[in-house]
Amino acid sequence: MRAEITLSSPVKKSARVLQLQGMFDVPVEDKLATTWQAELPVEDREWNVGLLVGPSGAGKTTIARTLWPDAVVAAQQWSHDRALVDDFPKGMPIKDVVGLLGAVGLNSPPAWLRPYQTLSNGEAFRAMLARALAEREDLVVIDEFTSVVDRQVAKVASYAVQKAVRRGRRQMVAVTCHNDVLDWLQPDWVYNVASAEFSWRSVQPRPSLRLEIREADRSLWAAFSRHHYLTADLHRSAQCFAGYVDGELAAFTSYRHFQHPHTRNLKMAHRTVVLPDYQGLGLGGRMTEWMGQYLYEQGYRLRAVSSHPALIAHRSRSPRWRMQRRDTKLGTSSRHTWMHHTSLDPRRLGVTSFEYVAAPATSRAADP
């Protein structure tokens, strides 16, 4: 794709314009014009993610709007009093809406139920990405990509959205002045507007992060409770762990003993929450799998029940979990009665039950 773009604007001579000319010896022309030339051979190969990068004023937006005029995401209108999920296309099934929100790293059901205006900058950015993908089936061009979020959120969100685009076999072009998203977005091609250089890239592993898991006091739950998709209560017998990414608090998980009439060594995963800034890295799955291994090495089994789509999808794919189908299809015979009176009744919660499958002994610190 080639483009030669010239932007010009008429200049009306006025007293101030003439004064400015005299002060700085600026020639007054009938028009001020700026020209860009861009060559992006994006049709030479198949690709999913592109990056248009350069400093402010370099012409990124102008080039994007010239090359892909119908694909640039316009300002989205959001309701002031409706749930976030109600601002997605009316014909889209709720399962698909939730799937897209989760795919871009917005995995907090409480956030899905709040109006867009109540979200944090990071949550709002992810919601914008999900809606842009929902409203278009082909190429999506995101201008000012990550410009309004802090750089930690920018990196994690970039990693999450590129995964969503690739899994959906979609195409997205990110337009930004921030070079720090490059290693997280992993674009198939990059065009540097300032130097007019285009280059193809291969997808590489994202930068590593150090996840350290420590035993935690239950008081730490206060930092996570409002982000949990069920009750904010924490069982009085819960054993808690906190996850720190590069030293920053990021995730929480816990378990409690499960009273089973025949099995004495059964533990139940209780609460697992990842703070919004770190959603999209798979930390929830890492935390519960670490906990499952931790318990296994002490002679216990870990079961987990969940109705959260992201957790169910992760555990369904992971070799570390085995689905317990009996828990999702409870009968009415007396042998099931003991479960009918607990908070873990899958028929009441609409959940799927899994049991952890042990792996070789691992360190308690892991790269997420």
Question: What does this protein look like?
Answer:
The strands form 3 sheets. The protein has an 8-stranded mixed sheet with strand order 13-14-12-11-10-9-8-15, with helices on one face. A 5-stranded mixed sheet has the order 4-5-3-6-7, with helices on both faces. A two-stranded antiparallel ribbon has the order 1-2. It is elongated. The protein has 2 domains: 43-200, P-loop containing nucleotide triphosphate hydrolases (Rossmann fold, 3-Layer(aba) Sandwich); 211-366, 3-Layer(aba) Sandwich (Aminopeptidase), CATH 3.40.630. It is 27% helix and 24% strand. Residues 326-349 and 363-367 have low confidence and may be disordered. With 368 residues, it is α/β, with parallel strands linked by helices.
Low-confidence stretches: 326-349, 363-367
Strand content: 15-25%
* Quaternary assembly: single chain
Number of helices: 11
Determine the CATH superfamily of the largest domain: P-loop containing nucleotide triphosphate hydrolases
Output the helix-strand order. Answer: EHEEHHHHEHEHEEEEEEHEHEHHEE
Counting helices, strands and paired strands, the structural category is: alpha/beta
Number of strands: 15
Q: Give the count of structural domains.
A: 2
Topology:
Layout: E1 2-10, H1 15-24, E2 31-39, E3 49-53, H2 60-67, H3 94-103, H4 109-112, H5 121-135, E4 139-142, H6 151-167, E5 171-176, H7 182-185, E6 189-192, E7 197-200, E8 211-216, E9 239-245, E10 248-257, E11 266-274, H8 283-296, E12 301-306, H9 309-317, E13 321-323, H10 337-340, H11 346-349, E14 352-356, E15 365-366
Parallel strand pairs: 3-5, 3-6, 4-5, 11-12
Antiparallel strand pairs: 1-2, 6-7, 8-9, 8-15, 9-10, 10-11, 12-14, 13-14
Helix pairs in contact: 3-5, 5-6
